[in-house]
Write a structure and sequence with these properties.
5-stranded antiparallel β-sheet; alpha+beta; about 180 residues; 3 helices; 5 strands; single chain
Length: about 180
């Protein structure tokens, strides 16, 4: 049986081309997956920061304003993302006062220091409550120009391929004007 002329030189070329292209396709797919997960985390902490600032702007100088901020952040995060939170900082962007909270997941109060004045049974402000450095009662809510509130959320992103290191810490900041209290 005779082989057709020219076919003998091309017999293994498809396999060689596949062997060259396949690793490039795998790297491309892994890169797309890596950056997709990174983008998801970036959007997640920006959303959480924005929701926390919105809750803080609405609560303004209420005694449980910081707890409302942290509850909004918890609500904006999924279960796995909540454990990646390094800290949450609530501060006055026009001053130096700030309070930094760390997520612990404790049943009584999930944050340290505990900003929930109602965390314990009466009386109000009983342990585990700890007064924040930037007291909600000290926030300026007088019209026509109320103060502002900044919420910063820091998250640790886990890179799954290791091309960019094992982890990266990202911070998202949101600043919002406090809702003025014009009717008391």
């Amino acid at each position: 049986m005779k082989r057709p002329i020219g076919k003998s030189r091309e017999q293994g070329s498809t396999l060689v081309e596949f062997a060259v292209i396949f690793p490039l396709i795998i790297v491309l797919v892994m890169g797309i997956a890596e950056f997709s997960l990174a983008f998801k985390d970036w959007l997640t902490i920006n959303h959480a920061s924005r929701e926390g600032a919105r809750a803080g702007a609405t609560a303004a100088n209420d005694i449980s304003a910081d707890m409302q901020v942290l509850n909004a952040i918890e609500g904006a995060l999924t279960g796995g993302d909540l454990n990646s939170i390094v800290d949450v900082k609530i501060k006055d962007p026009d001053g130096v006062q700030s309070t930094t909270y760390t997520y612990t997941g404790n049943v009584t109060c999930a944050w340290t220091p505990c900003p929930d004045p109602y965390a314990a049974a009466p009386p109000l402000y009983a342990p585990p409550y700890q007064a924040p450095n930037y007291l909600p009662e000290s926030r300026d809510v007088t019209a026509p120009k109320p103060g502002r509130l900044q919420v910063s959320v820091t998250l640790t992103h886990q890179w799954f391929t290791g091309f960019f290191g094992s982890t990266s810490a990202w911070t998202a900041d949101t600043i919002m004007r406090l809702e003025p209290r014009v009717f008391g």
